[in-house]
Write a structure and sequence with these properties.
Length: 159
């Protein structure tokens, strides 16, 4: 009987204790949670940066479209034919990042313009009725993915 008491007493001391396997499993679970959270935060930050680049690129593109709409509206007859063609001469490079990003790491976007097409509808008989314009902004993200936004619009000729 004394042996039985000793065994019970021994089990009684082990009731709340943890062994090495439980410590290892708990450490592994915490490590997986930390790595997963860190990866999710990094991925989320990259997604926010990409979204910000898209927003800034669209802002610059809309500004470029408005500039050309105003230019055609005010001085369509005075714009040289070479400028109306668009193409490689009509490219503008802009920064998509703010001033806190070092110059070598900045993402640059290229604004380009398609050929401006003057549309003359025969049924109106008034000369050029409107202009068709196409604008594109393209850039390459840090991860190597090419991005672009295209805006096609028409501009009515002023009487």
């Amino acid at each position: 009987m004394p042996m039985m008491k000793r065994r019970r007493r021994h089990k009684k001391f082990q009731r709340g204790a943890i062994d090495l396997m439980q410590v290892a499993v708990a450490f592994l679970m915490i490590t997986v949670a930390v790595v997963g959270t860190t990866y999710a935060m990094f991925y989320g930050r990259q997604a926010i940066i990409r979204q910000e680049h898209r927003k800034v690129a669209l802002y610059h593109l809309r500004q470029y479209v408005e500039e050309w709409n105003a230019r055609i509206l005010i001085e369509a007859a005075n714009i040289p034919p070479g400028e109306m063609l668009g193409g490689s001469d009509a490219k503008v490079v802009v920064d998509l990042d703010d001033l806190s990003v070092p110059e070598r790491a900045k993402v640059k976007a290229t604004l380009s313009r398609e050929q401006t097409v003057a549309v003359d509808l025969p049924e109106t008989g008034v000369g050029i009725d409107y202009y068709r314009l196409g604008f594109t902004v393209t850039w390459r993200e840090y991860d190597g993915m090419d991005q672009s936004i295209l805006i096609r619009t028409s501009m009515v000729q002023r009487d």
